[in-house]
């Protein structure tokens, strides 16, 4: 493919996504490329700090080139937020890797101020619409509160993170060995192992045995979603995100031939608390260049 053909294809994909956001009445926002390093380290569960691109401003303070856009959107809007708001962005994020500074084009949408599950449904539907331009794709939906509820009895924070990492990496053997060292009810351990081993998730099985309030809420919301969302969507209660600020429904969009998701999203109601506000929010980002390469 020539450069001209590639840029034509790139513009076509970009315009298609922009048309989708505008059709659903989302407003475009721009945020700063820079973020105070002190703000970054306050919010756990974002990009690894060693992968951030750091700069020093004229005052001698450390800033970073933004590793994601959602954080700055919440920061900019939280102080003046008065009503539900739908926004989208089309910009660049930055990361340090072994080859130097890496720039990635990201597009995405955020629905702020709506705590109902209907907002989650809208985000998932938009994600499936974005992926319609690709022949073989799927959106996988999970819920952070199911696993968080299951791990409620695990007191040690480091152990809890290790368990999540082994579930994230699908390592049943290592997980079983680790759980043998943890004082935990056998039924809970079995359910944790099941999250790694099971290929398809049955709500009836998940609803049996040990359940607490958080797990029940997760099952209830996923049950509702299953009835409301059509298209190429599957459900996975072991689904995890590298962003720890997600605290509800999460989802990822995959295309054939790529190991990493081209879409990442979910609910993050607690993130605004960093800025002394309480704004329920749900959104997703699109790894634009990966998406373009996947479009025939």
Mean pLDDT: 90
**What is the percentage of strand-forming residues?**
15-25%
Q: Tell me, what is the CATH class of the largest domain?
A: Alpha Beta
Largest sheet, in brief, is:
8 strands, mixed
Do you know the CATH topology of the largest domain?
BirA Bifunctional Protein, domain 2
What's the alpha carbon Rg, rounded to whole Å? Answer: 20 Å
Q: Can you walk me through this structure?
A:
The structure is a single chain. With 296 residues, this protein is an alpha+beta fold. It has 2 domains: 3-152 and 212-294, BirA Bifunctional Protein, domain 2 (2-Layer Sandwich), CATH 3.30.930; 153-199, no CATH class. The chain has helices at residues 3-23, 37-42, 70-78, 117-131, 144-150, 157-168, 172-179, 186-197, 203-206, 213-228, 288-294; strands at 27-28, 34-36, 53-56, 62-65, 85-97, 100-112, 137-143, 233-235, 249-255, 263-267, 281-287. The strands form 2 sheets. Strands 1-5-6-11-10-9-7-8 form an 8-stranded mixed β-sheet. Helix 5 runs antiparallel to helix 10 (213-228) and helix 7 (172-179) packs antiparallel against helix 8. The chain is globular and about 55 Å long. The protein starts with a helix and ends with a helix. The model has no long low-confidence stretch (mean pLDDT 90).
């Amino acid at each position: 493919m020539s450069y001209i053909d590639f840029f034509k294809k790139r513009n076509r994909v970009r315009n298609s996504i922009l048309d989708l956001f505008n059709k659903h009445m989302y407003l475009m926002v721009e945020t700063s490329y820079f973020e105070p390093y002190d703000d970054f380290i306050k919010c756990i569960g974002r990009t690894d700090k060693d992968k951030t691109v750091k700069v020093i401003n004229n005052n001698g303070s450390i800033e970073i080139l933004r590793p994601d856009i959602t954080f700055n959107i919440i920061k900019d809007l939280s102080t003046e937020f008065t009503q539900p708001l739908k926004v989208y962005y089309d910009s660049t994020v930055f990361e340090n890797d072994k080859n130097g500074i890496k720039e990635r084009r990201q597009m995405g949408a955020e629905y702020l101020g709506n705590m109902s599950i209907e907002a989650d449904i809208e985000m998932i539907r938009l994600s499936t619409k974005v992926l319609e331009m690709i022949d073989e794709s799927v959106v996988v939906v999970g819920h952070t509160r199911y696993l968080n509820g299951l791990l409620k009895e695990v007191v040690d924070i480091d152990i809890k993170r290790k368990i999540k990492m082994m579930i994230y990496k699908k390592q049943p053997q290592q997980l079983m060995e680790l759980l043998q060292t943890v004082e935990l009810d056998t039924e809970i351990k079995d359910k944790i192992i099941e999250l790694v081993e099971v290929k398809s998730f049955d709500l009836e099985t998940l609803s049996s045995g040990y359940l607490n309030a958080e797990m029940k809420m997760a099952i209830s919301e996923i049950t509702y979603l299953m009835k409301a969302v059509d298209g190429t969507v599957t459900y996975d209660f072991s689904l995890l995100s590298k962003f720890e600020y997600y605290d509800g429904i999460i989802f990822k969009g995959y295309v054939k031939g790529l190991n990493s998701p081209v879409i990442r999203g979910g609910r993050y109601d607690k993130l605004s608390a960093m800025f002394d506000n309480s704004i329920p929010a749900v959104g997703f980002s699109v790894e634009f260049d990966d998406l373009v390469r996947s479009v025939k």
